[in-house]
Design goal:
The complex is a heterodimer.
Chain A (H helix, E strand, L loop, with lengths): L2 H21 L3 H26 L3 H31 L13
Helix pairs in contact in A: 1-2, 2-3
Chain B lengths: L1 H23 L3 H21 L3 H25 L15 H23 L15 H11 L1 H22 L3
Helix pairs in contact in B: 1-2, 2-3
The chains are: A mainly alpha, B mainly alpha.
Chain lengths: 99, 166
């Protein structure tokens, strides 16, 4: 199986996730788009692990999955705190630092 | 090899369609459900790449834990179910241009660098044994593993401190 088909799929997923991060306004949806990008990276790591016949890629994929779980926990706590203070999950409403 | 290729392309089409659903749908709960499809597709690709253990970790942690967290987040922020406020900001066109440029750049770079490389499964007898993954974690990568444990603890405490009501 060609290695490039996995890498191209991962690149497309990453670009779609980047669009979501830029275009979404709801905080939870931005976090979901970040998950899409992280999954693209994991797919790359495992594809290279299979191509090089080296298990280290899978270990790093496990690390990425762990860190993604930690990131979602903290990220949702932040979105929740914003909602409690501003009564909206919209990230556009967070403009206190604007001059 | 033909069966693997057909499986790959079917999964790839479904995954890209569901990913576009995540970033385009007007309903937050639908976005979470589309995300489940993408995550399950990634797990299936891992199985296709003979990474069985990572695939099941993906199913357990992502579909089992992260998506539930997202659904709790949607519930607690009372996300608009009926298009009251738009879920997108007004930068949709610049965002699409930037993401499209990024995608084209990544695809051309990847094709230029790795064209012709093949994943060879003929010498394998089955999926990567979990014992091999475990030995790699606890021998070669034991320090990063411990650092990740401390990071998880820090994230746990941080999330509690942030979300606690005083």
């Amino acid at each position: 199986m060609p290695l490039t088909q996995f890498l191209v799929l991962a690149a497309i997923l990453f670009a779609v996730g980047a669009y979501g991060v830029l275009a979404r306004r709801n905080g939870v949806l931005v976090l979901m788009s970040i998950e899409l990008m992280l999954n693209a990276v994991t797919l790359n790591l495992v594809a290279f692990s299979a191509q090089l016949d080296e298990v280290a890629g899978q270990v790093f994929a496990l690390f990425v999955i762990t860190i993604a779980a930690a990131e979602v926990g903290v990220g949702l706590a932040i979105v929740l705190l914003l909602y409690r203070n501003l009564r909206t999950p919209d990230l556009d409403a967070v403009d206190q630092l604007k001059g | 090899m033909v069966a693997q290729n057909v499986t790959f392309w079917v999964l790839a089409v479904v995954m890209v369609a569901a990913a576009i659903g995540v970033v385009r749908t007007g309903n937050v709960v639908h976005a979470a459900l589309y995300l489940v499809v993408v995550l399950a597709g990634v797990a299936a690709q891992f199985i296709l790449l003979a990474a069985e253990f990572v695939a099941w970790v993906q199913v357990l942690i992502y579909i089992g834990a992260v998506v539930i967290l997202f659904l709790f987040g949607i519930m607690l922020t009372r996300a608009p179910m009926r298009h009251e406020t738009p879920l997108d900001n007004d930068q949709r066109l610049p965002a699409a241009l930037a993401a499209g440029a990024l995608g084209v750049l990544l695809v051309t770079a990847v094709l230029d660098a790795f064209r012709g490389r093949e994943i060879d499964f003929t010498s394998r007898t089955g999926p990567t044994p979990t014992a091999e993954v475990a030995q790699s974690i606890f021998r070669t990568f034991v320090v990063p593993f411990e650092v990740v444990s401390v990071l998880l603890l820090a994230a746990l405490i941080g999330a509690i401190v942030l979300a606690r009501r005083d």
